[in-house]
Amino acid sequence: MQNPPDLRPDLARARVSETKRDGQPTIGMVSLGCPKALVDSERILTRLRAEGYGISADYAGADAVIVNTCGFLDSAKAESLEAIGEALAENGRVIVTGCLGAEPDYITGAHPRVLAVTGPHQYEQVLDAVHAAVPPSPDPFIDLLPASGVSLTPRHYSYLKIAEGCNHKCKFCIIPDMRGRLASRPAHAVLREAEKLVESGVKELLVISQDTSAYGTDIKHATERGHRAHITDLARDLGSLGAWVRLHYIYPYPHVRDLIPLMTAHSDSGGLVLPYLDVPFQHAHPDTLRRMARPAHAERTLDRIAEWRAICPDITLRSTFIVGYPGETEAEFQTLLDWLDEAQLDRVGCFQYENVAGARSNALPDHVDPAVKQDRWDRFMQKAQAISEAKLAAKVGLHMDVIVDDIDEDGIATCRTKADAPEIDGNLFIDEDTGGLAVGDIVKVEVDEAGEYDLWGRRT
């Protein structure tokens, strides 16, 4: 099931409700790609808002449009080019930034009319391009920056980016080439941002980076202003703020074990972090993992999963996998299916391998036929769906807390349990007795029905 377009981060438009003053320049924003790019978009818009720019929610009301692109896959590049073309057709004055901006000739070759092209997280260059295209005209008596900045997500949850870049050298990935090596933010700066978000009404913090469990290793886990740059310490600090804390992109290093007690409500320090880990396993066969240039110890990951569940039986594990990687044999794929049977992951996504310009995997021999990739994807998702359906059926009759994401005109509330991240996991729907509910509320429900990916419940 897919969320409504207005809740998808890859189709985000600025959510700003304000009246434009006379003479105020306005900027529109289209944000494509991952939550990390969404955070970049929010920072750019917050800086522009502080300089007196208005934020337009549509093309027609903007003096110029920024398109924050994704360049990870060829399909994402095509979508980015399409979004640039749409902005040019609807507005005519377009500034391009983001991951695809690392290839300016690729962009200008398709769209020579763009005003400027900048790379990922190049905030100053984006601002310079905006200043050149639409000079600022601030009014210090009127233009006040909201304490929470400009958000592209609903008010009750927010992505919290703790680091840039990545030190891994996976052959299918060009993120380190586009975003550089791991660069962790100081822990005190992350915590201060989180405090401001919670003060502004955010109920859920979604912790993101390219390799969240490596946070702080590049700065030797430095302690500054009383806060240590280590993922376990940071999770404990964030958990003390009273909001839901959800951890994404956690590589299964041995020290991840230390995070699990923070998720266990009955431990001395537990209940600080949601019992949820998003772990990018990618595959299970050691030969496939070696060709990917990833750790080839699938049996150890099963041991770690068992250890995590022994500490926190309620933990939800989600992951993504690649099928049809160059050289993947039927036997290797069957190993992946068998591993999934044993691992019994709660939430699973799967991608068919595709070449990415600049990725080392392009040069590998024995690329898999598209029809075979599709067949393997179908078989993988069929197994993952069956596991999901069985796990959700076991939740019928349970009482749990849910957070309300939306209430439609018919009064049906779309919610999420602690086991569901926004946009990528399932939902819990309440279709009666929703009077008085508001978006962002956290309420107790009893689950009374389960589907393949979603739940239905009633308030208790």
The CATH class of the largest domain turns out to be Alpha Beta
The total tally of domains equals: 3
Radius of gyration: 22 Å
Q: Mean of the pLDDT scores?
A: 87
CATH superfamily of the largest domain: tm_1862 like domain
Task: Provide the low-confidence segments as ranges.
Answer: 1-17, 140-148
CATH fold title of the largest domain: pyruvate-formate lyase- activating enzyme
Largest sheet features: 6 strands, mixed
Q: Number of DSSP strands? A: 21
**Relative strand content:** 15-25%
Distance between the termini: 26 Å
What is the helical fraction, as a range of percent? Answer: 25-40%
CATH architecture of the largest domain: Alpha-Beta Horseshoe
The rough form would be described as globular
Number of discrete helical segments: 11
Structure class: alpha/beta
Domain MTTase N-terminal: 25-135
Enzyme class: transferase
Function: Catalyzes the methylthiolation of an aspartic acid residue of ribosomal protein uS12.
Family: Belongs to the methylthiotransferase family. RimO subfamily.
